[in-house]
């Protein structure tokens, strides 16, 4: 993807966030805030269905939307593997981008700026918390 295509791709996720909304009878809810720029992501899950609400900078909202597309419908064990992989992949100095995260490849450039990494990961931390703080634990 060219720089312009990547920008347009991310902006589409900001303008039209995927899986946006709440789940009234969620099995778990997680929230994470980035106090530096005011990003806030809240995740609800019911079984393998994910819904999210993200506010804040473009990177935060786009990342949360992309994350929701990637993990929606996946079992909990796979979601935790993807969370770990995303955290590792966002460390500065990483050269490779994992095949499992190829749908998120426009985000890999964010790791070049230490200020953008938290914006990219805030949704992932909210997702992790949603599964850690379940009201009705599930075994997926």
List keywords for this structure.
140 residues, alpha+beta, Sufe protein. Chain: A, three-stranded antiparallel β-sheet, 41% helix
In short:
Helix content is 41%, strand content 16%.
Largest sheet: 3 strands, antiparallel
β-strand number: 3
Q: Mind telling me which CATH architecture this is?
A: Alpha-Beta Complex
Order of helices and strands: HEEEHHH
Task: Please identify the oligomeric state.
Answer: single chain
In the predicted model, the low-confidence regions spanning at least 5 consecutive residues are 136-140
How are the strands ordered across the major sheet? 1-2-3
Supply the CATH class: Alpha Beta
CATH topology: Sufe protein. Chain: A
Terminal residue distance: 35 Å
Tell me the count of domains: 1
Question: Can you put this structure into words, describing what you see?
Answer:
The protein has helices at 3-15, 58-71, 76-89, 117-132; strands spanning 28-34, 39-46, 49-55. It has 140 residues and is an alpha+beta fold. It has a three-stranded antiparallel sheet. A hairpin with a 2-residue loop joins strand 2 and strand 3. The termini are far apart.
């Amino acid at each position: 993807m060219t720089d312009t295509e990547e920008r347009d791709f991310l902006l589409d996720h900001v303008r039209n966030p995927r899986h946006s909304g709440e789940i009234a009878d969620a099995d778990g809810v997680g929230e994470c805030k980035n106090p530096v720029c005011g990003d806030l992501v809240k995740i609800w899950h019911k079984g393998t269905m994910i819904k999210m609400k993200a506010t804040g900078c473009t990177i935060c909202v786009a990342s949360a939307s992309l994350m929701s597309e990637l993990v929606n419908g996946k079992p909990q064990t796979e979601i935790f593997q993807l969370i770990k992989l995303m955290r590792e992949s966002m460390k500065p100095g990483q050269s490779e981008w994992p095949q499992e995260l190829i749908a998120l490849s426009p985000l890999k450039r964010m790791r070049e700026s230490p200020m953008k990494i938290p914006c990219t990961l805030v949704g992932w931390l909210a997702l992790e918390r949603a599964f850690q703080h379940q009201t009705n634990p599930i075994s997926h």
